[in-house]
């Protein structure tokens, strides 16, 4: 498998598998959003991907406003740790998100950020490899901060029912509400057969390939223009931080080898920008619009910002003419 070209290998994966693949390689959080009626099926699909595609342990958390820090820690322990009631005195979660459905990965030490951690790391601290937290946005802010470690949330991905569920459909485990819908959806080619297995060697291969990706001066300028235009947008109230700027370049460097190239292109940067900034952008509240300082009318401002979303902001910014 180590000789398989990354671009050929990734074609065998579903969108969810690619999202988890890159997040595991980057050792960062991954946010998966979906509609309310799909959350349960999506959580089960992510669980099957965790165990079958990645051969990793997982835990599904059903979060609510009543979820306590003790509940959270108890649920992310391995089955062996739960039976023995062993709780690590201290660990850092390299996992997370704060929206409808989140996928979590276990931590690696900071000094291991450029080298693979041994597979036994999660077992040594009695924590599962992947945590799938449904409705994590409902839990207390303190729990979110501890789990997310501030901005360790690499990408977000919206999953629609038209994308289908590879494992649930093959095993006929879909919930009743989704079974009829799936029967009329044309399955993508990767869903015609079981997906490939992803091991540590393949993850190492993508890490190494990303380190060799080059960036031209024109593309660097294009990245800077995207960040500057986002920060200057009247509709953006925050979220475009230095960390986000770094994550944009980093994620783009992971995407390039998956497309079979070792350099960044404007189209790859634009794709990375949508995944990296979508969950970070804070839309300006009408009362905080800067134009009010110069005499704008509140009613007019409210009307102008009524339909603004992070996606529409990104659509406008990415209309920037890219370098040729």
What features would you describe in this structure?
The protein folds into two domains: 6-206, no CATH class; 212-317, Helicase, Ruva Protein, domain 3 (Orthogonal Bundle), CATH 1.10.8. The chain is α/β, with parallel strands linked by helices. It has helices at residues 6-10, 15-26, 39-53, 69-75, 79-84, 121-124, 141-148, 166-170, 176-182, 200-211, 217-232, 242-258, 266-277, 298-305, 310-317, and strands at residues 29-33, 58-62, 101-105, 130-134, 153-158, 236-238, 282-283. It starts with 5 loop residues before the first helix and ends in a 7-residue tail after the last helix. Helix content is 44%, strand content 10%. The strands form two sheets. The protein has a five-stranded mixed beta sheet.
Features:
about 325 residues; alpha/beta; five-stranded mixed beta sheet; two-stranded antiparallel sheet; 15 helices; about 10% strand; globular
Number of helices: 15
3D shape: globular
Structural class: alpha/beta
What about the largest sheet? 5 strands, mixed
| Count of discrete domains | 2
Q: How many β-strand runs?
A: 7
Summarize the structure.
The protein has 324 residues and is an alpha/beta fold. The protein has helices at residues 6-10, 15-26, 39-53, 69-75, 79-84, 121-124, 141-148, 166-170, 176-182, 200-211, 217-232, 242-258, 266-277, 298-305, 310-317; strands at residues 29-33, 58-62, 101-105, 130-134, 153-158, 236-238, 282-283.
Please outline the helices and strands.
Layout: H1 6-10, H2 15-26, E1 29-33, H3 39-53, E2 58-62, H4 69-75, H5 79-84, E3 101-105, H6 121-124, E4 130-134, H7 141-148, E5 153-158, H8 166-170, H9 176-182, H10 200-211, H11 217-232, E6 236-238, H12 242-258, H13 266-277, E7 282-283, H14 298-305, H15 310-317
Parallel strand pairs: 1-5, 2-4
Antiparallel strand pairs: 1-3, 3-4, 6-7
């Amino acid at each position: 498998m180590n000789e398989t070209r990354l671009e050929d290998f990734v074609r065998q994966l579903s969108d969810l598998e690619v999202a988890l693949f890159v997040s595991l390689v980057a050792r960062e959080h991954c946010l998966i959003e979906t509609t309310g009626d799909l959350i349960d099926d999506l959580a089960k699909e992510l669980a099957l991907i965790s165990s079958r595609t990645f051969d990793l342990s997982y835990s599904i958390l059903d979060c609510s406003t009543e979820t306590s820090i003790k509940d959270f820690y108890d649920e992310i322990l391995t089955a062996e740790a739960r039976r023995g009631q062993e709780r690590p005195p201290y660990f850092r979660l390299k996992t997370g998100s704060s929206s409808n459905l989140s996928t979590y990965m276990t931590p690696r030490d900071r000094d291991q950020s450029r080298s693979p951690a041994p597979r036994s790391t999660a077992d040594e601290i009695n924590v599962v490899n992947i945590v799938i937290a449904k409705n994590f946005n409902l839990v207390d802010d303190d729990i979110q901060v501890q789990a997310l470690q501030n901005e360790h949330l690499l990408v977000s991905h919206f999953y629609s029912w038209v994308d289908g569920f590879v494992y649930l459909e093959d095993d006929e485990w879909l919930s009743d509400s989704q079974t009829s819908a799936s029967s009329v959806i044309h399955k993508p080619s990767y869903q015609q057969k079981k997906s490939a297995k992803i091991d540590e060697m393949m993850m190492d291969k993508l890490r190494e390939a990303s380190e060799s990706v080059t960036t031209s001066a024109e593309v660097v300028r294009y990245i800077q223009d995207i960040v500057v235009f986002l920060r200057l947008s009247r509709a953006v109230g925050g979220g475009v931080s230095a960390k986000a700027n770094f994550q944009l370049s980093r994620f783009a460097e992971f995407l390039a080898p998956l497309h079979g190239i070792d350099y960044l292109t404007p189209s790859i940067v634009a794709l990375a920008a949508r995944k990296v900034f979508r969950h970070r952008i804070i839309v300006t509240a009408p009362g905080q619009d800067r134009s009010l300082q110069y005499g704008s009318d509140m009613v007019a401002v409210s009307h102008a910002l009524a339909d603004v979303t992070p996606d529409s902001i990104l659509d406008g910014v990415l209309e920037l003419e890219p370098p040729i």
